[in-house]
Write a structure and sequence with these properties.
The protein is mainly alpha-helical. The protein is built from 11 helices and 4 strands.
């Protein structure tokens, strides 16, 4: 309490109060400096962690969207069932792990083959009949195929989310305060190899060159003796195979469920627009941009805005550069 001298009408503080206040101010300033330094350290670590996680996730995104980008670049078909083919590969790997105890990495070829078979049948039975009609018809039909597969998964595996959990993949690795799991490194390597393998196939094989020529000019390819119908069937099947290749990786890093497919399709379409039609290596760069952006959004804003970043990026690219960052023909 303050005491007032009636004669001097001045305020006097109790003895020792100024000393205590001075010591408290000094202590408070020291604590604030320590807190500020700690925040700076955490902020630097968070940025590096977000960059690394976003980069690894971005390459996986590139593999997830590779099948849709390939089919769209070759056939000008927006395959709305792409996500469902990818989820099918994830369910196959999950089922083989639960029933037979098969390592999910070893189940990737079988998962990719089954997804390719489902894609082959979908094109042969449905899409081939309306291939020469308006492009909107193929969009609606593939959307219907996706709904069919989504409900099929609901009946076979219920609505529960399924995660492919393997102990060795969750083993953490630490480097200078940055944590990364062994599974993230493995999936990054598989995704990177998958994207580069498709690029090499299109550039250096006879079949790949025939697919590229058909994408440039179908009429000229037909006159040159290339069976364009067979090329379309092969391209759509390869799109399913690439989707099935990413399914087990999605199950290992996240989860699969009957409703996961449409989210993967939307993200794949965003990446296709961002990279540009026909740029296979550009998908890796576009995936990293999206992955790092999402990771930064989660770190410094909120996880609820993670998906919003992708849509905002999608709109900006459509306004500024509709052809994409690396757009060109395959």
């Amino acid at each position: 309490m303050l005491r007032v001298d009636p004669e001097r009408r001045s305020v006097r503080r109790p003895k020792g109060r100024s000393v205590r206040l001075s010591s408290r101010r000094s202590l408070g300033a020291a604590e604030r400096v320590k807190v500020q330094r700690k925040k700076e350290l955490i902020s630097t670590t968070s940025i590096i962690q977000s960059l690394l996680s976003g980069m690894l996730e971005g390459v996986n995104y590139a593999l997830y969207c590779l099948g849709l980008a390939f089919v769209f670049g070759i056939m000008r078909i927006i395959n709305m069932a792409h996500g469902e083919f990818l989820v099918l590969g994830g369910y196959i790997a999950y089922w083989l792990l639960v029933k037979l105890g098969l390592n999910p990495l070893l189940s990737i070829p079988l998962a990719a083959a089954i997804a390719a078979g489902a894609s082959f049948l979908s094109y042969r039975v449905f899409l081939q009949r309306i291939r020469t009609t308006a492009e909107l018809n193929t969009l609606i039909l593939t959307f219907g195929i996706g709904i069919f597969f989504s409900n099929l998964y609901l009946q076979l595996w219920s609505a529960d989310i399924r995660n492919i959990s393997v102990d060795w993949m969750e083993r953490p690795l630490k480097l200078a305060g940055i944590y990364i799991s062994l599974g993230e490194i493995v999936t990054f390597a598989i995704s990177f190899i998958g994207v580069l393998a498709l690029h090499s196939f299109l550039r250096h094989t006879k079949t790949g060159k025939a697919i590229r020529i058909t994408a440039i000019d179908r009429d000229a390819s037909s006159l040159a003796g290339i069976n364009v119908e067979r090329v379309d069937l092969l391209a759509f099947s390869i799109g399913g195979l690439l989707a099935g290749l990413g399914g087990p990786l999605l199950g290992m890093l996240s989860f699969v469920s009957p409703g996961t497919g449409i989210h993967i399709t939307v993200k794949a379409f965003i990446l296709t627009v961002l990279a540009g039609v026909g740029s296979i290596p550009g998908l890796i760069v576009a995936g990293m941009i999206l992955g790092i952006g999402e990771a930064m959004t989660v770190t410094f804003v909120s996880s609820s805005y993670r998906e919003l970043f992708g849509f905002m990026l999608f709109l900006v690219i459509l306004l500024v550069r509709p052809s994409g960052l690396f757009g060109k023909r395959i």
